[in-house]
Amino acid sequence: MRIIFAGTPEFARVALAQLHAAGFEIPLVLTQPDRPAGRGLKLQASPVKQFALTKGLPVAQPRSLRLDGKYPDDAAAARVAIEAARADAMVVAAYGLILPQWVLDMPRLGCFNIHASLLPRWRGAAPIHRAIEAGDLQTGVTIMQMDAGLDTGDMLLAEALPITPQDSTGRLHDRLALLGGRLIVEALELAACGGLRPVKQPETGVRYARKIDKLEAVVDWTQPAEVIGRRIRAFDPFPGAHTSLGGETIKLWCYEIESDSRPSGVDCGTILSVNGAGVRVACGQGALRLTELQRAGGKRLNVADFLRGFELAPGMTFGK
């Protein structure tokens, strides 16, 4: 089976690697243009492009696929490449470009999307973050037959994964990426023999995972400790939940919840105690014991190492 692969970040690279290892013929890889990254802002290829080049796979990086859009020359060149690939199917995983109808219609078997949620819950750009933030007990991967809507196509395969109280977006991402790679291989093997049974998505239970805004990562200490904790995990590794103290930004990475330890008459965000086991902070309900922190420009440190270079004391208040 001939497969066009379209994807950009690490989540997509894992799927591409598994398709390649499974022996699928991949005549074309689509990925986002190289972007400036790092302190020197040097152009950096996406994880998908880096993998494709190591395997000698042809790569195209159009800025758009819309023939009537801002970059019609890019789209026209992409159309020539897609037509020449003579693909049976296209696999899409976190590509970053909307596929116009002409792309959806091009492959014989259509376009398959690897989506990191159990649809119809968490359609959209940030399903892993939003599942953790909402306190979901499970998530998973859905292989979907793409249509013109936003993650609205028929479901082809799905498998659930539990979300543990220790899961950050980064940890859960890695497990979901491996699951997505396995499921897309299975889906394509079933498609080759006519074994897929599309199922329409339910009309109930739809939720949208809007794109992460950096402003969301500012900790609101008036919220319950449990809610703040979920947001710390949801925004790890990006954009990193953070608070301020004396004009300096401090990122928060690891914590423990102390639901019954908040004294009355204390402002939210007040540091209650400081020692090598953690920094206890009053929340709207309960308290958090922060156990891993980071100064701007510094490294993530356990609380004991952090306190060697940054003074925190009871009575100080975060967010001021």
Quick take:
The chain is of the alpha/beta class. It has helices at 10-21, 47-54, 72-85, 101-105, 127-133, 169-192, 225-234, 303-309; strands spanning 2-7, 25-30, 35-37, 42-44, 59-60, 89-93, 111-115, 123-124, 138-145, 155-162, 208-209, 242-245, 248-258, 271-275, 278-282, 287-295, 301-302.
Name the structural class: alpha/beta
CATH C-level name of the largest domain: Alpha Beta
- Strand fraction equals 25-35%
The percent range for helix content is 25-40%
Domain count: 2
Low-confidence stretches: none
Query: What is the average per-residue confidence, as pLDDT, rounded to a whole number?
Result: 96
Shape descriptor = elongated
Total helical segments: 8
Report the sheet with the most strands, covering strand number, pairing sense and barrel closure.
Answer: 7 strands, mixed
E-strand count: 17
CATH fold name of the largest domain: Rossmann fold
Q: Give the strand line-up of the largest sheet.
A: 5-2-1-6-7-9-10
Q: Give the CATH H-level superfamily of the largest domain.
A: Formyl transferase, N-terminal domain
Order of helices and strands: EHEEEHEHEHEEHEEHEHEEEEEEH
Give the termini separation.
Answer: 59 Å
> What's the architecture of the largest domain in CATH terms?
3-Layer(aba) Sandwich
